[in-house]
Amino acid sequence: MISTDLHLLFSNIRKEFPALTQKAYGKDLVYLDSAATTLKPQSVIDRMTQFYSYETGNVHRGAHFIADKATQAFENARMRTAQFLGAESADEIIFVRGTTEGINLVAQTYGKMNLKAGDEILLTEMEHHANIVPWQMIAEQTGAKILAVGLLENGELDLNDFKLKLSSKTKIFAFTACSNVLGTNNDMKFLTALAHQAGAKVLIDGAQIVSQAPINVKDLDCDFFVFSAHKLFGPFGLGVVYGKKSILESLPPYQGGGSMISKVTFEKTTYNDIPYRFEAGTPHVAGAVGLHSAIDFVERLGFKNIHAFESELLSKATSSLLQIPGLKIFGTSATKGPMVSFNIQGAHHSDLSQIIDQEGVAVRAGHHCTQPLMAKLGVQGTVRASFSVYNNTDDIEHLVKAVEKAREMLL
Ligand code: PMP
Which pLDDT value is given to residue 1? Predict the structure, then answer.
């Protein structure tokens, strides 16, 4: 049972999300696709509107009133993000477009500088394409090889396989903190320590974890940590790369253009200090400001409360869905994040999700940008319902009824 206090806290929070006041096909919208993107609270929307209304000077170059305001808001957002991640300094925070661009940045800077033929990049079988393809691209360019750690039946990492595949050849270990399909939460600190013992650098894909649990990159000791603001109640088009200062300082730029330079002549260009060296062109200032507000929102709620609430929703959803004949859940780790991926024997995941959608319940269906994982599971795709701070037990009941109806219609 969710405690009364928590129930009250989160039913009030729900009112802060304007998206939930609308109907879908004449029915109350039930939003269960937060692993794809979270809805945005009014506070984030208001802060971005205020920014676009009064603060849209360009950053770092304008010597006037509103350019200074914008620069201050942008750099405050960087400091807030550094604090949110437990980074040592704001210099360690690079603003990019999202997790995907962040991983490409690390692959094309750290990877390009440090990988050579015979080196290995270690991934896991539960990675999103965003944490596979950028590494394959740099592997092709450098002659490095990709390996992937296998999974156990319950969707957790096979640690014996990890220890087998990790070696002095491993130059980079890049893994997701939480699988966007199985929900598996990986032990970031433990895995990072083992990878470091082997001499590898570590990148953590934090896309799914940042809305679930507090992060302290210093304690984790990871070399890079990336996430997207839009999965943390923030805006689209803004992502974050954390990198250890000493490593970032050793890296070449990612893209060329304005702001990332120190001096330009036609003969030679010298580059700016970190983090600006990695931020060519006008950045997504409103996005960073929106992220600042989103971090305030999530910290106001508190990760302890979020975890307690979402765990209850997850366990109710899991036990209710398992009552449905023929329904199989993929990912059964005891410490998994708030999502359930499933299929029903004899029904196609797309057909299921279409009927569920018609009931006003938004879920995701398909390969979830994890085709190697789907191949491993022996399925083409799954239906995924994911839960967040604005959901409640009624939402779960709607989901279960919609899945039951879909099953009856399809079988
Ligand atoms: N990694 C994981 C685990 C994800 O869930 C996602 C988004 N589905 C990404 C990376 C990519 O994030 P983005 O599309 O915001 O770059």
Answer: 56
